[in-house]
Amino acid sequence: MVVAGMIALATPVAAQQMATQLLPRTTVVSQAKAAAAGSFVKNAAPAPQKAISINPSDYGEVVSIISEDFSKMTTGSEAEPDEDTDISYQNDDNAWINMSGDYTKEFGWGSHGAYPAGGCLYINSGQVNTPLLDLTGNDGIFFVKFRARTFEEDAESNYTVIEGAETNGMTATWRFLENYQVEKIDNTWREYEFMFHDGGPTTLINICPQDAAILIDDIEVYQVKQYVGTPAGHKHRFYTGKTFNLSWDAVDGADSYLLNVYTVKGDGVTPNDYIVENKKVTGTEFVVDNADSGDTYYYTVQGMKGDKVSMPSTPVKIMDVEAPTLADECPTNGDTYTASWNEVPTAERYNYVAAAKNVAKEDGKMTVTHLWMPGSTYGEGSEIPVEFTKDNPDDHSADRGYPQMNGQAGWRATHYAVYKDALVLDAFWMTQAKEDDGLISPEFDLSKDGGKINIEMTAAAEPCTYYDENGTAQTAYTRCAVALFSYDKSVDDFVQTELVYVQDLSNDWQTRTVELTKGTDRSIIGFYGTYTWTNLYIKELKITQNYKAGEFFYDPFYYGNFLEGTSVDVTVPYRLKGMDIYHRAQSVRVKQAAQSEYERTSYLESKMSDYKLVMAEARPTGINNADISFSGATVRMEGDRLVVNNPAKAPVYVYTAAGAVVASDMSGAETASFSVPANATYIVKVGKQSVKVTL
Q: How far apart are the first and last CA of the chain?
């Protein structure tokens, strides 16, 4: 599942791997300006060489894109390379394009640690790369071939890397293609050939010997204009463990398709066991029904037209985890019940949600969410202190987590910080690192009132200084992007359907309203900092819709993140008295573990299981309508309001557990009524006396 939450802006294991981490704002250096002497991705483990088992010319007409025989490198020899001749120039804007055009047939090549060797190229502790190539044609499939041998007579290279990347016009974010490891280059000239997929308009190919000096010659990049095109495979859908759906794009002229689904051997490349082999399919979809839950598969598809068949598509990885099944019975002990579920193959942790069925008693406005950020924490068990404020900010942010906020459970945050007075979104990560920074809601039914959603937020923005084209200093403020995502069955995921910007914020608190109009029965709302590289501060957030009597939504009051084991104890707060309690769960597995302190572990989450009834008309025994009495005053709950009877007419204050004032009444009235976010603990102070209340 792709976790919903990443907005489509122009600009969704071990315990320590899953824990929230604080990250500094580090400078994101463009790949174009990075030192190019080496591999694109230093820690990437390339696939071993996979010999091309096809003859490309059998599939159509071969089209040469670029070839270089280094015939202009006339100095030196294979035995004595000319290490005194510098074939490069200083290119401060793009370190990858630095080879002088005097030495190649076409300008745009790049190299480091490379020298002329009498009509070939000598590379010693360096690399050579092609110019930027447009490889979008012919289904984006291309081939790279070259001749090579080691320089030293008795030497052998077992770790020469050849890799491709679409540079996106030499921006900071590259899309990496296949990377291969040539298993053996010895002192005899041999030709090597590799197949790549998904070429783009500005693709670069890099060859980098890492364990021996080599001589290289006759580099060629070519494509094949096929008789029938290669389909593009899509991500799998509707995963249940045993079954999943595959689909691919239709190819013009194709009358059928050839499908293979398989596991791979330990080398990560070679097919091992086929669960679907050479299956002829007449449409563009196929349901696999014989998989083993949790196993990782790959699939390729080829277009067919009569007796012609295309080259295989890029192997698409199928790695997933099925949702757990909740037990039918939940033993109770007072206000607490125990939820349990089955152990899922390959699942390492579980997420769990408990929610109340919140039913509208009458027609009118219904509060779906009311979050109060002051007094929030990084979550249960977190050791990260809450010590900064809007007026005393910090440049660190947490990479991901589920902050514990007053009002509702289950909100996910990325590149965020918890301050004493706000939830902070660090826009640096969105605008500079092209990563998600956001506060993302749980899934809600937002189809009420034709999908109209009203949002009220109290927010502020940190200023930043930039210089215009005249060199004059200007001030800008981070903006808030509000995005709506809705479930799309055609892709079995959430897709962005609406986007509204909250602009003209300043460093002072302001209350703004946003209206969205495309809510569905399965929707998620995300709030993001963008436009500048500074902080967005959110103090309060309220989401409402117009309901008709009897309409309802599931209101999360407990979220267990990365739970170990297959059970959890949940306490039902008193405010939910009389409501039906439901729950759902999700499996989690590591997708790719961090290989160093500079990387972050990525993980997969299953679909959430469907909501299942825990108990009808809950009867918790916490604060009750018999009132809590102290100092002559009483405190009770009436619906979603905190009511204080105050015969002494003393000042009334309501604080979060962290000491932030949520509400106050100094009118001298005998009754004070406050609408405060639920799912929280408050201190109610009447005069000089205080009482703790948990809602």
A: 33
Give me the pLDDT at residue 375, please: 87
Q: If pLDDT is split at 50, 70 and 90, which confidence band does 25 have? A: low
For position 581, what pLDDT does the model report? 96
Residue 684 pLDDT grade (very low, low, confident, very high; cuts 50, 70, 90): confident
Instruction: Name the residue type at position 405.
Output: M
For residue 544, give the 3-state DSSP assignment: strand
Helix (H, G, I), strand (E, B) or coil at 428: helix
Look at residues 11, 12, 9 and name the one whose alpha carbon lies nearest to residue 493. Answer: 12
Answer yes or no: are the C-beta atoms of 566 and 344 closer than 8 Å.
no
Handedness of CA 487, 489, 492, 498 (dihedral sign): negative
Check if the beta carbon of residue 197 is closer than 8 Å to that of residue 213. Answer: no
Residue 545 CA from chain centroid, whole number: 29
Residues 402, 405: Cα–Cα separation, whole Å? 9
* Distance from C-alpha of 4 to C-alpha of 274, rounded to nearest angstrom: 32
- Other beta carbons within 10 Å of 192: 20
Q: For residue 639, give the amino acid letter.
A: G
Q: How far does Cα 91 stand from its chain's mean position?
A: 34
Q: What whole-number distance in Å separates Cα of residue 136 and Cα of residue 596? A: 34
Residue 165 tokens, joined? 């990347």
**Assigned CATH for 364-547:** 2.60.120.260
Contact 462, 535 (CB under 8 A): yes
Q: Which of 78, 72, 154 is nearest to 123 (CA)?
A: 78
Please give the Cα distance from 545 to 540 (Å, whole number). Answer: 17
**Chain position carrying tokens 């495309």:** 518
Whether residue 7 has pLDDT greater than 50: no
CA distance 408 to 392: 27
Question: Residue 102: what are its φ and ψ, rounded to 5°?
Answer: -70, -15
In angstroms, the CA 692 to CA 695 distance is 10
- pLDDT tens-digit series, residues 14-23: 333 345 555 5
Q: CA 400 to CA 416: how far, in whole Å?
A: 7
Confidence of residue 5 (pLDDT cuts 50, 70, 90): very low
Q: Of all helices (H) and strands (E), which one includes residue 15? A: helix 15-18
Domain 31-226 matching CATH 3.40.50.1380: the answer reads no
Cβ proximity of 340 and 366 under 8 Å: no
Quick one: pLDDT at residue 91? Answer: 84
What does CATH list as the number for 628-694? Answer: 2.60.40
| Contacting residues for 395 by C-beta, under 8 A, at least 6 apart | 24, 25
Q: Which of 400-404, 559-563, 573-577 has the lowest mean pLDDT?
A: 573-577
Q: What is the pTM of this model?
A: 0.79
Confidence (pLDDT) at 54: 73
Structure tokens at 104: 């190649």
Phi, psi of 572 (to 5 degrees): -90, 120
